[in-house]
Amino acid sequence: MLPNSVVGLSRFFEAENVQSLEIVLKLTERCNIECTYCYYFFGGDESYKTRAPTFSKKNVDHLVSFLERCIADGVTNIRVVLHGGEPLLLKKDRFSEICERLTSIQGIDLALSIQTNAMLIDDDWIAIFSKYNIFVGVSIDGPEDYNDLYRIDKQGKGTYQRVVKGIDKLLDANKDGLIQKPGVISVINPDFEASVIYEHLTKHLDLSNLHFLYPDDTYSTTSEDKLKSIQKYSDELLNSWASDTALSAKVRFIDNYIKRIQSTPFSRDLHQSYASLRSVIITVDSNGDIGPEDTLRSIIPDAFGDGLNIKDATISDITSNAKLMDAWLGMNSIPSECGDCEWKSVCRGGDLKNRYDEESGSFNNKSIYCTTIKSNLESIAATLYRNGMPIEQIEKNVQCYSSS
Ligand code: SF4
């Protein structure tokens, strides 16, 4: 259900306007470990059991043809996130062949990245990442006692030591100039100390590109107590980052908020409301079915495989599919409930999945993490002020340019 404010924008969302495409590519739909909070295997949607464990050779042909049709229709930038399950469960020769086929496509700017638990990384994988310039993101939740509470293998054993071996290999390869420095994704857990995690990732593991994910909760799956604990975690994380005098680490949500507060309303809102409608994010399952952003899978399972498959779909089919369109425009619109919020142009309502209310079946609500987001934005604005950004400029910048 779309807020009125974006209905007018939908006219931009037409096939001929789409310039960039991000594909979350399910190379495997199985994993070598069993993280207890995994949205994919334990989020309630079990449709993966009906699909092939790995992306078939025939589907590689279909994917290449699909991308060539997209390019013929005007797409110029393609980012493929090699995803799973655990994508490194694919045999190396098959994995390399897919990268070779993708990077041989003419006429596009192609970027490859991978999200992995890093446990299978060896010298051969490093050589593949290096050859195809693949940016590697690793999932780890902090020090061993934190990580191993939830990130466990099929025998119930912790995975930390094996993950860290993989991270060390990646960092060595980066020092040798073979690959980019790896990034890391950690799921926020209100039972943990954010300062301990920040310290561990940056000082102990020497990682500097950090991304913290809010739990995939909605209005019906969260609670007041959980939200309060998450706010405490988030405030503590911000404090850790702000007091890290080396300023060696980049935390994605902090970095994004800083950039948005530093942008003029015109440039920020133009980018959000117009340029973002020139790019599309889709998920491609192992059977070639096309769906919206992967984390929406347990919330709107019907939108996945809604008659669209890479064997014959075009960009025009994607932009005229009502379920994909709803998800994408929802992601790029400000919920009506945020209408009076002074931060709405910077926050834009939070992540789509965290706006979902099962009772109304609508995404047109402020994020369940609204209070935390506001608190974070106030702290970041205060930090910018202390570092010399005039208060008038901050106030002017956080305004909306448009009325949406
Ligand atoms: S801070 Fe809250 S009310 Fe403001 S835009 Fe974000 S989610 Fe909406």
Describe this structure in words.
This protein has helices at 4-7, 39-42, 57-72, 92-103, 123-131, 144-150, 160-175, 194-204, 224-242, 252-262, 265-273, 315-319, 322-331, 344-347, 370-386, 391-397, and strands at residues 20-26, 77-83, 109-116, 135-139, 183-187, 209-213, 250-251, 279-284, 290-291. By secondary structure, it is α/β, with parallel strands linked by helices. The chain has two domains: 17-331, Aldolase class I (TIM Barrel); 336-397, no CATH class. A nine-stranded mixed beta sheet has the order 7-6-5-4-3-2-1-8-9. Mean pLDDT is 88; it is low at 1-8.
Offer a concise description of the structure.
With 404 residues, the protein is α/β, with parallel strands linked by helices.
Number of strands: 9
CATH topology of the largest domain: TIM Barrel
Strand content: 5-15%
Given the C-alpha coordinates, what overall shape results?
Answer: globular
Helix-and-strand structural type: alpha/beta
Domains (count): 2
- List low-pLDDT spans: 1-8
Q: Could you spell the SSE succession in H and E letters?
A: HEHHEHEHEHHEHEHEHHEEHHHHH
What distance lies between the first and last C-alpha atoms, to the nearest angstrom? 16 Å
What does the secondary structure layout of this molecule look like, with pairings?
Elements: H1 4-7, E1 20-26, H2 39-42, H3 57-72, E2 77-83, H4 92-103, E3 109-116, H5 123-131, E4 135-139, H6 144-150, H7 160-175, E5 183-187, H8 194-204, E6 209-213, H9 224-242, E7 250-251, H10 252-262, H11 265-273, E8 279-284, E9 290-291, H12 315-319, H13 322-331, H14 344-347, H15 370-386, H16 391-397
Parallel strand pairs: 1-2, 1-8, 2-3, 3-4, 4-5, 5-6, 6-7
Antiparallel strand pairs: 8-9
Helix pairs in contact: 8-9, 9-15, 10-15
The structure holds iron/sulfur cluster.
Iron/sulfur cluster is lined by residues 338, 341, 343-344, 347, 349-350, 366-367, 370, 373-374.
